[in-house]
Amino acid sequence: MRILITNDDGINAPGLEVLQRVAETVAGPSGEVWTVAPAFEQSGVAHCISYTHPTMIAKMGERRFAAEGSPADCVLAGVHDVMKDARPDLVLSGVNRGNNAGENTLYSGTVGGALEAAIQGLPAIALSQFFGPENAQLDDPFEAAAGHAAALIRDLLDRGRWDSNGGYRTFYNVNFPACPADSVKGRRVTVQGVRPDVHFTVEPIHAPSGRRFVWIKGGRQDVPTGDGTDVQANLDGYISITPMRADLTAHDHIAPLRTALE
After folding, report:
1. 108 is in an annotated binding site
2. Which domains, ranges and CATH numbers included, belong to the chain?
3. Which of 189, 217, 223, 241 could lock 195 by a disulfide, CB 3.0 to 4.6 Å apart?
4. What pTM was estimated for this model as a whole?
C-alpha cells in the first residue's frame, strides 16, 4: 500500500511523527509512506488552496517533502507531482494537536487535507488528538492516537463505506479522546456536533509601534454537545468516527423551498 501523509501543524510537528509510524504499520513491510506537509504551521486554514500564487516544494529526505502552502496544497502536490507516476492508495492527515470535532471541523486544515484527497477520488482520513488534563502532561500526549490509530484505519479500510453516492466521495474525521491509550473506552460512530455558545472571537492588542491588531481567540472545548456527537464521544472517553462529504447542501430545505419559491 502507498500512503500519502500530511498535516496542518507543519512538517516538524510531533503529531506527524506519530502519523508516520502509524502509516508505516498500516502500509506494511512492502508498502511506502510519502510525506508532503506544510513547511510552516497552517492551522485554521480549512480547505484553502494557494490559487493566486505558486507553492514552493522542497525535498527534505527520502519520500519526504515540505511545501510552502496549505494541507490541501500539499495533497494536490503529492497526488499530481510528487506521486504522479503512482497515486497513493490512501491519504492520512494529522495527527492534529488538538481536537477537530464540532465547529472546529469547519476551520480545520487537517480536515481540509482529507477533504481535498476525497475530492481527488482517494480514500482519506483526518486524525486529531483531543488535549485535556488527562493527557496534556503525559510523556506522549498523542498516546491515545498512537495506540489506536493503526487498528482503526485498517478497520475503516476493510469495513468502512467509501462510496460517492453519485456525488462527493466519503471521507472520515477521527478524533481521539484526551486520555492515556489504556483509558480509551472504545469507538463511537458520530455526527458532527456543535458546542452551544462556543465560537471564535478576537482579542485586540496594541503593538509597541502603537498599531492595533487582533488575535483570533478560541472558546472552551469541554462543552457537552449531546449524545451521538463527536465532541460528546471524546469527552466521554471514546474515539469518534464521523463520515463526511464535501456537500454543504441543506437537503431538508430543498422540498419546502421549492414549494415556497418555485
Report:
1. no
2. 2-194+223-261 (3.40.1210.10)
3. 223
4. 0.97
Q: Which residues contact 55 (CB under 8 A, 6 or more apart)?
A: 67, 68, 69, 73, 77
Q: How many residues does the chain have?
A: 262
Splitting the chain (262 residues) into consecutive groups of 10 residues, what average pLDDT does each group show? 98 98 98 98 98 97 98 98 98 98 98 98 98 96 98 98 90 98 98 96 97 96 96 98 96 97 98
| Cis, peptide link before residue 82, omega less than 30° from 0 | no
What's the 3-state SS for 153-194? HHHHHHHCCCCCCCCCCCEEEEEECCCCHHHCCEEEECECCC
Inter-residue contact 184 to 239 (CB < 8 Å): yes
Q: Check the annotation: does 173 bind a ligand.
A: no
Residue 246, all three cell numbers:
464535501
Q: Is residue 43 part of an annotated ligand binding site? A: yes
Cβ burial 165-180 (10 Å sphere, 16+ → b, else e)? eeeebbbbbbbbbbbe
